[in-house]
């Protein structure tokens, strides 16, 4: 092999020589050193011999470790590109990929713990359903009433209605009597109150019998004093020279005066010499001075005073 000035040719020559004379690591090293010294005599410059020596040591190291130099030479001929500059900056992010295929439907989850929403509005009414089957026939009804029975019932109903009308008429009459009684009550002009008792008068004169009836219809009774205060109140109602009937008599028991309710008289204010019990003097009258006198009931008309 002819040795030129190219360092690559020198390397190839060195590899060839090592393959021919490879007997031991020491012989190879010596052989390479002799070649380097002999190459100086050919005029190779000093700066090429320095890296050559380093290359010789590297080849010796590879031979001792069992590295295949031929493969290393092939790798050298491949001329790999080694990046020696500073690392570059990151580029922009790429576009998002397309969505994948839709996956299978997941299982139904548990019901949430939130509050239940408000009930929605009712939906529209659905279509009308088909007509149902006809139901079973009902039981036969009872026999109706005849015309004569209806007539009897009508008569009885009429009688009942007539009784109701009669009862209503009686109630109306009772109400009219109550109204008349209250009218007479409110027509009383003179009023005197003593304790729980009230004396009233219409201002008109009448008989003893009619006076009792008038006061009873008004809801009271013919006045009769039971003490001095009541006697004074009655006297104040009388005008001068006027007399009034008192609610007592001795019709039931001659010579013994009783109240109209049958109880014995407990208070009296007789005039001097009275009562004299003359014939038919069964009633009692009060004078304008408050004194009492027994008189005939049937013929005399005096002021009527009622007590309530």
TrEMBL record:
Xref: SUPFAM superfamilies: C-type lectin-like
Alphabetically ordered keywords of this record: Calcium, Collagen, Disulfide bond, Lectin, Signal
Domain C-type lectin stretches: 194-304
A GO-annotated cellular component: collagen trimer
Compositionally skewed regions (Basic and acidic residues) per UniProt: 95-110
GO molecular function (one): carbohydrate binding
PANTHER family recorded: MANNOSE-BINDING PROTEIN, PULMONARY SURFACTANT-ASSOCIATED PROTEIN A
Name this polypeptide is given: C-type lectin domain-containing protein
Annotated source species: Terrapene triunguis (Three-toed box turtle)
Segments of this protein annotated with the region Disordered: 92-154
